[in-house]
Each structure stands twice: as structure tokens, then as C-alpha cells.
Amino acid sequence: MMTFLIVGVSILFLVGLIVWMKVEPFIAFLLTSIAAGLFLGIPLASISGSIQRGIGSLMGALVIVIVLGAMLGKVVADSGAAQRIALFLTESFGERRLQWSIALTAFIVGIPLFFNVGFVLLIPLVFAVSNQHRIPVMVVGIPMLAALSVTHGLLPPHPAPVALVAQFDAHMGTTLIYGLILAVPTVILAGPLLGKLPYFGTIQVKPLAVFSAKPKPIEQLPGLVNSLFTALLPVFLLIVLSLLGLNFPEDHPAYGWIAFFSDPNVVMLLSLIWATYSLGIGRGQRMATIMEGYGTAVKDIALILLIIAGAGAYKEVLMDSGVSAEIGASLQQLPVNPLLLGWLIAAVIRISVGSATVAALTAAGISAPLVAAGGVDPNLMVLAIGTGSLIFSHVNDGGFWLVKEYFNLSIKQTFLSWTLLETAVAVIGLVGVLVLDVFV
């Protein structure tokens, strides 16, 4: 009980520093991490190391993708490519069905791409569609966020589902089929349909300048094929290279090349190089002008990187203190449906620690005996834990700050949009898993 209390108080302390005392979020995260480490029993000499590991591990995985993604987003926005794609979506689906077209695009993009990569890639498109058709940003943004979140939590080849399949000795293909059956209605309910709520139309959002290029005359826009291919090149590369990788064993000479070029960091770098030519130099732009735009893009996301780094520090302190294991062990004793219990363990760890991947992997270790004992489909347990790990994203989750800063929301607005969405995804997903359990 004391552990729950300390975690709860530390979260309130973090919110208080940021909301009421107006402390810069990165500094607030550092102060909260130190305080939480002290009260959770981490030796004083080890707290600084936990903070550094948390920042290093999270930023090491994200900084290249986010920075290169911001540059790619800048050139896609400034060149008019995002505007061209927005016009194409309107003509293909009609203005009334724009939310559905955005959700479909994000779902396709989200299958091979990590949440952060897909988010950075699609955010300029969301702003372009919103600006082009005078639609509130969050009305368009909610379907995109729902699709990316669901694919991240439920579908291989994302890290958590893949790891859960291995840990529970589930079948990758079966899990993917069940995951798709569950993902489609979840995205529909938590995306386009949730986004139709009048509340989202009232959220006043002023997007970051880096993604708010002024509309260009149609005759000055790049071609549709060029715009689509360049904007979605990371997706094409990852899909093709992933499929190639399945056909080569690890001892094959070509495997190393495929593994290298399929790395998200390399994919984003190659995509940016191509975009620099196809949307820049190839259309008469000077290299100096393009690079100046890239510099502006990096400046605009500098604070975002620091905030995500701070969230990583806080997460690591909670992990090093043993909070996840203690919370999970206490929940394991509850006499409930194993699928519901796996979902609940992942949900509580997610709320406490922040990272969906950490919550899923930790819950898997705790829930493994339930699967080993039989009586529960391991493929469904993967999905139950995956949906539970998405619930109630808040201030200790890097994704919370990614959404807040890119959409330029207040903390309250982020809670009432992103956090609400993630909770809806988790609850709808749980209901879907329990329904599937009746039929499989």
C-alpha cells in the first residue's frame, strides 16, 4: 500500500510542479525522479545513475527518429506535398469521410512503424488536412492517434506483441489474425467515431510552426506520386525489407545488410535524403535553403526531446525501485478471469510506470504462470496484456508529452483527448478479447 501511495504522490507532485508552479517539464521530471527515488528506497548514490540510464535508453531509441522525422515533416509540409496528399484524400474519400481516410492511412502506416515513427511521419498530414478543410485539428488527429496506438500495442512486428508471443509460446500468425480482428473495430470505435464527439471540435489548437506551411497554389504543388512516395517512403522501405528479412536466415550473408537497412534510424535517414532531392533540390530549391528549414525543424522540437527524456528518467526510477514487480505480484492473487487479470496487471503497471512496452513485458512475466497452467488461450493473453498496457497514458509517459507538444495542447487538453483515447482503446480492447474468448 505504501508503494501505491508514494507513486500516486509523486505523480501529483509532478503535475503540481508543471501546472501550478509553471516549472519547465524537464526540470519537473528531474525533481520528481529524485524525490520518488528517495522515498521508494533507491540508494542515494544510485539515483543519479537511474536517471541517466532512463534518459539514455529512451533517447537512444528515439532521438534520431524524432529529429529526422521532424526534418522530413518540414520538407513535406514546406514543399506542398502534404497539401497535395490532403487534396487527394478529399477527392478520394470526400470531406465527410476524411476521418476514415486518416484512420486507414495511420493503420496501414502503423503496422510496420513504431508509434513514434508513424506519429512523426503523419503529423504534418493531419495539420495539412485540418488547415485545408478548416476542420478542428483534434477531430482529424484522434483517428490517427487511435490507429497508431492500437497497432503499436496489439500487432506484431511491434516489440511488445512479439515478445509476449515468445514468452507465452503463442503462435505469431494466430496472434496477428486475432489482433487484426480486434484492432479493426477498436480503431473504428476509438478513432473516427470517438472523434465525432462535439467536444473535440471545441479544442483550440495552434500547431507548431514547423508543420504549418502556408497553402500553395495548386500549380506550385509537387506531383501526387512524388508526394505520396516521398512521404510514405519509410513505410515502403520497412515493409519490403521486413518481408525480405523473413526469407533469409541469420547466417545468410545478406541478412546483415537487410537488418541494417531495415533499422528505423537508417530508414528515416535514407527517406530524408530522398526527400531532400525529390521535394527540394529536384524542384529547384537551393541546398542552403533546405538545410535552413531543417535547422528550424530541430529547434522547434528541442523541448519535446527534453520532455521525453525527463519521462524516461522518471520511468527508470520507478523500474529500479521494483514498483512494477511489487504491484504485479499483489494483483496476481485476485480470483478473476486470467485474461482480465492479465489486462489489469498491465493496466496498473502502465499507470504507475508510463511505458506501454515496459508494462506489457512486466505483466507478461507476472502472468506467465497463468498461461502455463492452461485454461487460457496464449494468443488472447497477448492481446489482453497489449490492450491493458495502453490505458490512461499520463504525465509519466513519453507519448503523453509527444502528443501534447506536437499538437501544442495544454495538460488538461491532453488528458481530455489523448488520455481519454488511450483509455477507450484499452477498455474496448478488453471487451473484444473477452468476446473472442467465447468463440475461440
Automatic annotation (TrEMBL):
Topology in membrane: Multi-pass membrane protein
PANTHER family: GNT FAMILY GLUCONATE TRANSPORTER, HIGH-AFFINITY GLUCONATE TRANSPORTER
Protein name per Swiss-Prot or TrEMBL: Gnt-I system high-affinity gluconate transporter
Record field: transmembrane: 5-21, 27-46, 58-77, 97-123, 135-155, 175-194, 224-248, 254-277, 297-314, 340-366, 378-395, 415-439
Keyword terms of this UniProt record: Cell membrane, Membrane, Transmembrane, Transmembrane helix, Transport
GO cellular component, one term: plasma membrane
Location of the protein in the cell: Cell membrane
Pfam families: GntP_permease
Family note: Belongs to the GntP permease family.
InterPro entries per UniProt: Glcn_transporter (IPR003474)
GO molecular function: gluconate transmembrane transporter activity
